[in-house]
């Protein structure tokens, strides 16, 4: 079945007033120009068998064309809308349009449509409607001889039309579900991103609250939080440990002579030297203006002194426009959280002796631990 190349002259029908709504309904199915599907092809085949015609099709009426979702006995994919009998059929959505002889119907008498090389003479089509009543197209049968369907064939064609409508609704429902799934996934992703952003912001706030902004080391608030956590205290003080107090030598003079900007750089250089010299499980705290406390869990006094020496040497090599040094006091303690204040005092006394002895040195307090 094919259309001849010469123009047709169907009697013009005015565009229905609800055409824009009908077109929107058709677009909602997203079916135009899709690949053939067995379910639709089977219904067209049944239409041919039921009505005994050489050709049948499922035609969808687009803005300026009719496009065939399924066809049998037809060798074209689409035709101009102005040449489509189906366009007349959808003007009466609730009725089967049957044209016993196109030559005797003034609307189609000049139609130039061939089926198997012979002029089309018979047409019967059932409009395909949406639940809202908009006609999207038809399922139709055509023949090359004038004829009429019997009542059983008419009813059968209507049944096939309802099956096409069911397929279309299943498609629309599946499309809707896919869209909802995409929207839900996008929403879930958005919520997860928002949650992750909230967690990240909260962590940043926690970090700012517990860390010194200049050096990045823990501050006193962070140290107090650690002391309130029994698990952390058990890890830090559950074995022989050492405490180290570090003080920047002549820091007031650094600020007075070189300015507070370079004074800040000096503190950052000391903090960097500390972080490069200790382990990931050690704890460093900016305890005062130019004073840093370091907790070394599982570290004996001699090893802690070596850590202090590494820090001192790194500070001396700091890339600053003036020489910088630190004094370090070290003391060790046994696994007993009740003794930590005493160990701290001994480290502070060792620091005092380091400064009194000329600074730029590490002094260890070797006072015997008292149980």
Report on this structure.
With 371 residues, the chain is α+β, with helices and mostly antiparallel strands. The chain has 2 domains: 177 residues, 2-Layer Sandwich (Beta-Lactamase); 145 residues, Reverse transcriptase/Diguanylate cyclase domain (Alpha-Beta Plaits, 2-Layer Sandwich), CATH 3.30.70. 44% of the residues lie in helices and 20% in strands. The longest helix has 60 residues. 33% of the residues are buried.
Quick gist of this model?
With 371 residues, the protein is α+β, with helices and mostly antiparallel strands.
Give the arrangement of secondary structure elements.
Elements lengths: L1 E2 L15 H10 L9 H14 L3 E7 L3 E8 L5 E3 L4 H5 L7 E3 L13 E3 L2 E2 L2 E8 L5 E9 L7 H60 L9 H8 L2 H8 L3 E8 L2 H8 L1 H18 L5 E4 L4 E7 L3 H16 L9 E8 L6 H17 L5 E3 L7
Parallel strand pairs: 13-14
Antiparallel strand pairs: 1-6, 2-3, 2-9, 3-4, 5-8, 6-7, 8-9, 10-12, 10-13, 11-12
Number of helices: 10
Order of helices and strands: EHHEEEHEEEEEHHHEHHEEHEHE
Strand order of the largest sheet: 4-3-2-9-8-5
**Quantity of strands, as a count:** 14
How would you classify the helix and strand content by structural class? alpha+beta
Mean pLDDT, all residues = 90
Main sheet properties = 6 strands, antiparallel
